[in-house]
Amino acid sequence: MTPSDREATGLLTRPDDLVRLLDATGRRHANPEFDQWVADVDLDALIELHRDMVVIRRLDAEATALQRQGELGLWPPLAGQEAAQIGSARALHDEDFAFTSYREHAVAWLRGVRPDELLSVWRGSAASGWNPFEKRMAIPQIIIGAQSLHAVGWAMGAKWEGSSAASIAYFGDGATSEGDVNEALVFASSFDAPVVFFCQNNGWAISEPVGLQSKQPLARRADGFGMPGIRVDGNDVLAVLAVTRWALERARRGEGPAFIEAVTYRMGPHTTADDPKRYRTDDDLAEWRERDPITRLHAFLAASGADMESVDADAKSAADRAAAELRAGLTAIPDPEPMSVFDHVYAEPNSHLERQRERYARYLAMFGDEAEAGAR
What angle separates helix 179-190 from helix 146-160, to the nearest 10 degrees? Predict the structure, then answer.
């Protein structure tokens, strides 16, 4: 039976069935629907996935520390969501395009974004950190859910141009209540856009639990838009890889969009400006720590006969290098000229923008020669 045949029978569209290939203890579970999608993932590939997650967790910890030290204005931690991001991003082809929110640092890392490019926005040194067309990844979207519309628009354009590429839209559970996401689902379904909607259900829309906004699994939202919806264990990097590969290949075959709900947990705060202790318990956090995505893959590698001393040393070395690069890159980020804030607001100059520019220049001139020089 082919993947398309199984879709027709509904085997891949039951959102109540959480797809899991590695359980919390690292034990491998056979899955007749999705094992084929990761049949090529050998021990070396699994070690690479482990290293990816170790590296991005270290970068996330470094960035959080840098914010606490006053080097960044804000930082949205991703701890706990490494498998959801690494597994899905590893499923992308080079020509695919990723559209993310502000927490997908692991996706950016795998798309080739340098640490200094990742941090420049959060340092307040740039309005955007990289060239989206070089990285095949849009600038992270702060407006909740807006990137879902961008992903659909890009996918529709790619389809009309005859491209075999697909797009993926990342958003959190809270974004599913936004009009932008629902409009994107309508457009994608209506035009069979080659796009995958990847919802990281990390349990909390800032300080509100997901159960407050949805009485049913979020993947069931897909039913109303005429597309398959599927839930996956978001802390199982192998299952996430399998499910995302399935959804992307389905899109590339011209069979339209799919909705993935990756069930995971945000171990840290919403951002470094948040205090999660005000709305969740230590017991809840402890329960999810037992489902740690890195720990479970580490356990599976050990049970599979991998040289864990070498695996751990290699991962630590890679994480140390990445952390050093991040800190060195941060100190090398130049402060922008004050007037450069107007440079890329509009494609063509206009009188409204020029009036703002003139007023801001006069404001800067009030602070002395140094500010005035920066305004020129």
Answer: 20
Which residues are part of the catalytic machinery?
266, 270, 279
- Residues paired with 258 in a beta bridge: 196
- Summarize pLDDT for 201-222 with one digit per residue, the tens: 999 998 999 999 898 999 999 9
Beta bridge partners of 167: 97, 195
C-beta of residue 238 within 8 angstroms of C-beta of residue 298 = no
Structure-block tokens of residue 162: 């005859």
Residue of 148, 141, 153 whose CA lies nearest to 177: 148
pTM of the model: 0.90
Helix or strand run (H / E) with residue 169: strand 167-172
The per-residue b/e assignment along 44-73, b for 16 or more CB within 10 angstroms, e otherwise, is: eebbbbbbbbbbbbbbbebbbebbeeebbe
> What DSSP assignment string belongs to 70-139?
TS-S-----TT-HHHHHHHHTT--TT-EEE--SS-HHHHHHTT--HHHHHHHHHTS-S-SS-HHHHTBPP
